[in-house]
Design brief:
The structure holds two protein chains of two kinds.
Chain A (H helix, E strand, L loop, with lengths): L18 E10 L5 E11 L4 E5 L6 H8 L7 E6 L8 H5 L2 E4 L11 H9 L8 H7 L15 H13 L5 E5 L7 H16 L3 E5 L3 H7 L2 E6 L2 E6 L1 H5 L7 E4 L6 H8 L4 E6 L2 E5 L4 H13 L6 E4 L3 H14 L4 H11 L3 H10 L2
Parallel strand pairs in A: 3-7, 3-8, 5-6, 6-7
Antiparallel strand pairs in A: 1-2, 1-4, 8-9, 10-12, 10-13, 11-12
Chain B lengths: L2 H15 L1 H20 L10 H31 L2 H6 L4 H30 L9 H29 L2 H18 L11 H8 L2 H15 L5 H21 L4
Helix pairs in contact in B: 1-5, 2-3, 2-5, 3-5, 3-6, 3-7, 3-9, 6-7, 6-9, 6-10, 9-10
Classes of the chains: A alpha/beta, B mainly alpha.
């Protein structure tokens, strides 16, 4: 992964958070009947990678698009590099990079021509050839966008977000549809941005990618932040003691619980995926390994604390169980009753 | 190279690479000019049919580029998310629109460079003796019409989905082709329809070009007024309906 030489000071966002969201509310529909974001607070600093997680309709894209200046908040405030994304949009455009979820490129232009064109928009753009190398698109540099694969389109979209040497980068699902090599490349690009002091705000559905790239994670559900913290803090939070491990499906969980000692509770959450509650520490780990060895069962992976997936489903599930998802319910009612284009559009827009 | 020049170059490149655009903006006007000038389908004022059809087809060319081609392309750019992405760059709305206007001018020059020689080849002889005044009139009428039709195309693209906009722009093209005095003289239309047609920019453009390039008379005041009003109203509607996404 070649690094792109960029001025060291491009990431200086000044004092205060690079991105600040306070009590943000975003509504859709003619009368604002559908609430996509509901009193959200979050911040991200220069040189920080903030990953926004959440199910479809949780408000991820609505939040990002409000920060990009595409949506006007119904309530609360947002600022990017201390500027208002709508009122100061012209000032911001040369300092932020935007990677859209889909499309956004002239279908008949190839990566080199598109990057050359976009380079003219910015005062101090990166070199086209360096960017093509960075996102590994040199081989298809002349191929029209409409003939690129999904992963190649994503990488071109990422390159377009980087070309102006942004101080803040908004990346909407950058690894969606990207092959493993492409993911590796994108991860390296994100790490490079962090190292240069760029604030990266990134949405994804892929928890493993989130854990690998994030300095901090925000989990949204029904437009609200239901968990926030570093990946370590989230997976090792109080009450997160225990073990998660992979092993052959169908183990005798009662017998294992007995072997692990008093208070142990073992569940098979999915075939071959096990969760141990009530015990933790080296003794529990050793007891587990011994028990599996005695049955010639291979331990494929072991996580102490909780996995991000467990934290995610617990957070999102709890929010849904407490009825904190009126926007989704409203959206579904609108869609099922065939009510208006607004309901369908809102659902997509609130991604 | 400035952002405006780079964007204009890209827009011209894409416009001239789109086969359907070339068909609409050059192919169909040339076909119509040759066909209607050679085959007596409609009785036209004056001795030679080609003297009526060259100004009429030039008017059609302006309309096809400024309204149909621009409107459809912009609608699809919105559908593809291109406008949304451009909205997050420093390019900005004025330079994007400036590039689109410059592209229209380039295409119109190409159209004139093709149609005028074809017209001469068919025996066209422009009326009037003051070539300078005629040229000024043609440029003035064409500029106003380009602004008016461009506004209509962008306004449609601003409110309609790409596919609906495609159908609407083509439908409007056909209606204005028939009602605009381009291939059917306005005097042949029924009274009520003719009255409506006179309020449309297509007829005002065609009447202006017929006057300047056909009879050699000055462009009727009515044409200037109608074009000026459309050139004011249509871009205003486009500005109100313009969306980056």
């Amino acid at each position: 992964m070649p690094a792109v030489a960029t001025p060291a000071d491009t990431g200086s966002a000044g004092p205060g958070p690079a991105v600040a969201v306070h009590d943000l509310t975003v509504r859709y529909g003619p009368s604002g009947a559908v609430t996509a974001v509901d009193g959200l607070d979050l911040e991200a600093a220069a040189g920080e990678v903030l990953v926004v997680l959440g199910p479809n309709g949780a408000g991820k894209t609505s939040t990002i698009e409000t920060l990009e200046g595409y949506r006007r908040p119904a309530g609360g405030s947002v600022s990017v590099l201390g500027l208002d994304p709508i009122a100061d949009h012209r000032q911001l455009t040369s300092r932020m990079g935007v990677m859209l979820q889909n499309g956004g490129v002239y279908p008949m232009l190839g990566p080199r021509r598109v990057l050359d064109l976009f380079a003219h928009y910015y005062p101090d753009p990166l070199a086209t050839e360096a960017l093509l190398d960075l996102v590994a698109l040199g081989r298809v540099a002349a191929t029209p966008w409409r003939h690129l694969s999904g992963g190649e389109r994503q990488r071109l979209s990422l390159a377009l977000a980087l070309i102006g040497q942004p101080q803040v980068a908004f990346l909407d699902e950058p690894t969606a549809g990207v092959d493993p090599e492409g993911r590796l490349a994108i991860r390296a690009v994100v790490a490079d941005l962090r190292a240069r002091g760029v604030c990266v705000v990134l949405t994804t559905h892929e928890l493993a990618e989130a854990e690998k790239m994030a300095d901090r994670i925000v989990i949204l559900s029904a437009g609200r932040a239901v968990r926030q913290g570093t990946p370590q803090a989230l997976t090792r939070a109080p009450g997160a003691a225990g073990l998660s491990f992979g092993a052959p499906a169908g183990l005798d969980t009662a017998a294992l619980a007995e072997a692990l000692g008093a208070g142990a509770d073992v569940r098979e959450s999915a075939p071959g995926r096990y969760r141990v509650e009530g015990v933790a520490g080296p003794a529990a780990t050793a007891a587990l390994a011994t028990w599996l060895a005695a049955r010639d069962a291979t331990l494929t992976d072991l996580v102490t604390g909780r996995t991000l997936e467990e934290v995610y489903f617990e957070a999102v599930g709890a929010a849904a169980r407490h009825g904190a998802d009126p926007a989704d319910a409203e959206r579904w009612r609108g869609i099922r009753s065939g009510r208006g284009r607004g309901a369908r559009r809102n659902r997509g827009g609130a991604g | 190279m400035s952002a405006l020049v780079a964007q204009t170059r890209a827009e011209v490149f894409m416009t001239l690479r789109r086969g359907e655009t070339l068909l609409l903006t050059v192919g169909i006007p040339v076909l119509f000019l040759v066909f209607f000038s050679s085959v007596h389908v409609v009785s036209t004022p004056g001795e030679k049919a080609v003297d009526f059809f060259v100004p009429g087809i030039l008017a059609l060319a302006v309309m096809s580029t400024a309204m149909v081609s621009l409107g459809i392309a912009t609608g699809f750019e919105r559908g593809y998310g291109v406008l949304k992405r451009l909205g997050s760059t420093p390019l900005g709305r004025p330079r994007l629109l400036g590039a689109k206007i410059a592209t229209i001018v380039v295409v119109e020059v190409v159209q004139a460079a093709v149609l005028v020689p074809v017209g001469y080849g068919l025996g066209w002889s422009p009326g009037g003796h003051d070539a300078g005044a005629a040229t000024l009139s043609v440029v003035g009428v064409a500029v106003l019409a380009t602004i008016a039709f461009g506004g209509i195309g962008l306004a449609l693209a601003g409110v309609l989905k790409a596919e609906v906009n495609l159908a609407a722009a083509n439908g409007l093209y056909l209606v204005l082709l028939l009602l605009g005095g381009m291939v059917v003289p306005i005097s042949k239309l029924p009274g009520g329809i003719a009255a409506v047609a006179r309020a449309l920019p297509a007829d005002a453009l065609a009447a202006g070009l017929h006057a300047a390039l056909g009879s050699g008379a000055s462009v009727p005041t009515e044409s200037w007024v109608v074009l000026a009003l459309w050139a004011l109203a249509a871009p205003s509607a486009a500005a109100l309906s313009f969306r980056w996404e």
